[in-house]
Prior knowledge:
By secondary structure, chain A is mainly alpha-helical. In chain A, 69% of the residues lie in helices and 0% in strands. Chain B has 13 helices and two strands, in the order αββαααααααααααα.
Amino acid sequence: MVEHRPLTAFLTHLVLILGVFAIALPVWITFVASTHDELRMNQAPLPLWPGEYFLENMKQTLFGSGLSGTEQAPVWLMLLNSLAMALMISTGKIAISLLSAFAIVYFKFPFRMGFFWMIFITLMLPVEVRILPTFEVVANLGMLNSYWGLSIPLIASATATFMFRQVFLTVPDELLESARIDGAGPLRFFFDILLPLSRTNIAALFVILFIFGWNQYLWPLLITTDTSMTTIVMSIKQMLEAAEQSPQWNIIMTTALLAMIPPVFVVIAMQKLFVQGLTETDK
Amino acid sequence: MLKRVHFPTSALPYLLVAPQILITLVFFIWPASQAMYQSFLIEDAFGLGTEFVWFENFQILATDHHYLASFQRTAVFSLLVAALSMGFALILAGFAQRVVRGAMFYRTLLIWPYAVAPVLAGALWVFMFNPTLGIFPYFLEFAGITWNHYLSGPQAMGLVILAAAWKQVAYNFLFYLAAMQSIPNSVIEAAAIDGAGPARRFWTIIFPLISPTTFFLLVINMVYAFFETFGIIHAVTQGGPGTSTTILVYKVFNDGFVGLDLGGSAAQSVVLMVLVIAMTVVQFRFVERKVAY
């Protein structure tokens, strides 16, 4: 702050604290809903202060039979499915992007620019605008209801390829020259020099892609019909539908809480990498 | 683009790009071209045969008042989402950059909603605004407002806008704060010495200097509202009541998977692709000019 004015300083903090509360309010209400029993959650006005059923709700949500009157996989299995999908998408994207960025930056070969533009085009086509034909392809390949079907169609990534291309372009040429004088081949150079140099970029990208993968909704909704393949994020919608018959809001909101804890934890715990990843991938 | 020093030509680079290219071909290029081809076909009423009709599907779209209304609705929706979340983020960032110690603490408390899935954001808000149980309808009742987004179109629209904007504040705040912190302190100090108060400094110095960020965020927010809010709509309103929250992305899904109008849905996909490409080009041209090499 440039000048010292106690009143404006007070006002500044007041506005910020109000902002923090406004942003946190929906999650606070969700948390409160997960700490009361079913009976209390069906009386208006709903509580604004936590009750004492949190552990019980957690236990029933994670290992119980889920909502009464619905056929659902247990929530712990959904969490595992989500984790598998998020990890496959993020590691897959990073792996194939690293390889293709390496090829495009360090090799001169026919059709190099053609490949580059082909990857560039994928940047422009979000899954939402080509769902129907993509669904058909996956169905024809027999990849419905499998982890491969959940992850592979989402792992081609122009943003990641672009980012690694930028990173590789900043690596000094002298490193390659000296590596070649010492007799290192392309793969040796890639694994021993390029990979260690781009370690933090990989970690930052991983944080962003993990969140991206975990939060996938439309795609899993379309290609999983088997309840044992449900992911936690898509189960919320089914629960909201079921809520019209059996309004067990305590269980629904505990599930919502479980679905957002992993990615939110990743953002808070790895904030520096998250910010780096977010600002890098969007340029 | 290419390194001055590089490896000699061999089969290796082809092997390296193969996985990426294969996935791009199978899951991007092929489906996209299928969508384009299907947009030229009309299926007969029994689904037995298809007819190649050139641009008829697009002509139908251009005269379909449901589609045009959906277009308009999407424009209103995305402008309001962008304005609401960017405005809120700008205010918070404007105050946060004044805090010397603790700015990073506030940042931690404000950026986490980025990690909440859109469909979850929808679930949280639909719970708070549940007409019979929710907290907000209970308090709105005292103000004489009856809240029921299952019956009232404008209320349903308001709710999806709130949920979509809430999630996006985090992203906008992060970029605004970073932009403000990169303004040299000397500029601010000089204005302070000349007698400009905090509000004056904000509007005459900080706000104009971060206008590139504002433009960048506007594009990003429009893309977000156009394409990533499907989960929110699906969880909160399913496009209803009536069609009052059916935005373009939801309509593609609804006409294709629920209505099974393949040609019409594919034509809508093609229109959306053109929109995405236009937005990306705007974004890239702008970023090219902003980044100084």
